[in-house]
Amino acid sequence: MTSAAERAELWVGAAVLVVAAGFLVWSTAGSRLGARLAGGYELRAAFPNVDGIEVGTDVRVAGLKVGRVSAVDLNPQTYYAEARLRLPDTIRLPSDSAALIQSDGLLGGAYIELQPGGAPDNLAPGDEIEDVQGAVSLISLMMKFVDAQSSEDSP
């Protein structure tokens, strides 16, 4: 016969397991496993520079989050970084859409902004977005500005 203390320990143990399972589900929501389980479809985009982009990075349309980056790999033939973008089935982009790497601010993180085009046909699952713009380095922009200013000051 079990005592009240043993039953209380059993219920507390069960509650701990439920909470742990909840944290496991929550932690995998932004990972590849979470993206695969979420459904939708993938598009590809090859960028010359993906600084700040990694698995789980937001994909936005008109500033609204519509998906996530599910993978980023280096193409050994082109030396471009190929990002796979997971989007919900409800978002269909025209075939002439663009993908740009944007920054949330000076110190903010990066995300991929999709700009829908006007073509009558849509990108199919697995298609590549051809019109891309990679990440812009703030340091290189500042160096170009400094170089331009110093060349103007030179006689």
Automatic annotation (TrEMBL):
The gene is mlaD. Pfam families: MlaD (PF02470). InterPro entries: ABC_MlaD, Mce/MlaD, MlaD_Phospholipid_Transporter. The chain crosses the membrane at residues 12-29. This is Outer membrane lipid asymmetry maintenance protein MlaD. The keyword Repeat does not apply. It comes from Paracoccus methylovorus. Keywords: Membrane, Transmembrane, Transmembrane helix. Residues 40-117 form the Mce/MlaD domain. The keyword Hydrolase does not apply.
